[in-house]
Design brief:
Oligomer: single chain
Strand content: 25-35%
Shape: elongated
Length: 250
């Protein structure tokens, strides 16, 4: 998954007209000057209102938005940015089977190319998967699924459960540094998974952003930033980010 500067996918969900719905920008932000930046933000906000209404309707009808909730296997997929709260799937970057009869399937599903605030509810084919504190599925999927959440924090270690289950495939060197991802282990069960590999999705709270109104935050210290779905703060963060945006000084 290459890091495509200026060609990232930006996704954000707000909760009101003031905090706009879904912002999706694909392509290079090369518009020069304040006027150009205002134009692109204006277009994004207008589009976001439309997308927010569309997303809400989609979630109400089926709990799924096909634009973001399809698992893919793509070695050159751009890394996704997530702002606000959104239901997403991701890119499968690792898949392997273990066990005497290859009954265990192991997946690494990268959700975002940056640290996220939280990964909340997990779904298999739109069915909620309750988890205990260790990531073991409870309820319907008990004994047949494990989901470990990694938020992309600096220094995050490689998933210990996967290392133990598939040491010939995954080691402590496979940290996926800076990426938010899920490790999913599934046990073969034709009743629970009649269509084979389920589509795995998650309700995710995205990036922490800088808010100049908050005296406890520093523009130069990302560890002080906080999660927000405020569209203005999210847009400012995107344009100022040294990896994804235009790197304008705050």
């Amino acid at each position: 998954m290459p890091e495509l500067i200026g060609e990232a996918i930006l996704t954000a969900i707000g909760t009101s007209a003031a905090e706009a719905g879904t912002i999706s920008l694909i392509g290079s932000l090369t518009v020069a000057g304040v006027v150009g930046e205002a134009a692109i933000l204006g277009a994004a906000y207008a589009y976001s209102s439309y997308q927010n209404n569309r997303l809400k309707k989609s979630l109400q009808q089926s709990g799924i938005d096909q634009g973001r909730t399809v698992m893919s296997r793509d070695p050159i997929a751009p890394r996704r940015l997530i702002y606000g709260q959104v239901l997403v799937s991701g890119t499968v970057v690792f898949i392997a089977a273990t066990g005497a009869s290859n009954e265990y399937l192991h997946l690494i599903l990268v959700i975002a190319g940056h640290q996220c605030e939280a990964i909340d509810t997990i779904y298999f084919d739109n069915v909620e998967v309750p988890l205990d504190g260790s990531g073991n599925a409870t309820g319907t999927f008990a004994g047949n699924a494990i989901v470990k959440k990694h938020l992309g924090a600096p220094g995050d270690a490689a998933d210990a459960t996967l290392i133990a289950a598939a040491p010939s495939y995954w080691t402590s060197a496979h940290t996926l540094s800076g990426c938010t991802y899920l490790y999913v282990q599934l046990k073969y069960n034709s009743t629970l998974f009649p269509n084979g590999l389920p589509t795995v999705t998650a309700l995710v709270k995205g990036a922490r952003v800088y808010d100049p109104r908050d005296g406890t935050q520093s523009a130069t210290d990302p560890t002080t930033w906080k999660y927000s779905n405020n569209s203005a703060l999210c847009a400012a963060h995107f344009m100022n980010d040294v990896k994804w945006g235009k790197s304008i000084a705050y």
